[in-house]
Amino acid sequence: MPRPRRSTYRWGVSLDDNELPRTEDEWRVRLTPEEFHVLREAGTERPWTGEYVDTKTQGVYHCRACGLELFSSDTKFDSHCGWPSFDDAIPGRVKEIEDRSLGMARTEIRCARCDSHLGHVFHGEGFTPKDTRHCVNSISVRLEPR
Ligand SMILES: [Zn+2]
What we know:
Elements: H1 24-30, H2 33-41, E1 59-63, E2 69-72, E3 76-77, E4 85-86, E5 94-99, E6 106-111, E7 117-123, E8 132-136, E9 141-145
Antiparallel strand pairs: 1-2, 1-9, 3-4, 4-8, 5-6, 6-7, 7-8
EC number: 1.8.4.12
InterPro entries: Met_Sox_Rdtase_MsrB, Met_Sox_Rdtase_MsrB_dom, Mss4-like_sf
Pfam families: SelR
């Protein structure tokens, strides 16, 4: 009997470290196929399709896989790139990894706790005074409105 799919995330509740899945198969049953592809296989949702691209709601964006708070809506800005963009992350919550796939030198960002893929971070584009754009897949996060 296949186990029923369910989301790990409960509104306002996050998983303890010792409840995190240990294998990709465990993640696969906890996430939807679309979530699994982006979060665990470093996929990218198509631009302008994510639910938070133009969201202005105040709140905190949590990791959709483990519930860790990652980004405040205070740092969200309009980049017109087709994905939610933040010029800062909550300190210590996002880790950066060099990504040389697709023949480009980019910096991947992942959840610091569960290692799920969030998107990429870019510097020097001049969008905001912090000059940083965390380009995040909507499906990697979930907004908890303030
Ligand atoms: Zn996470």
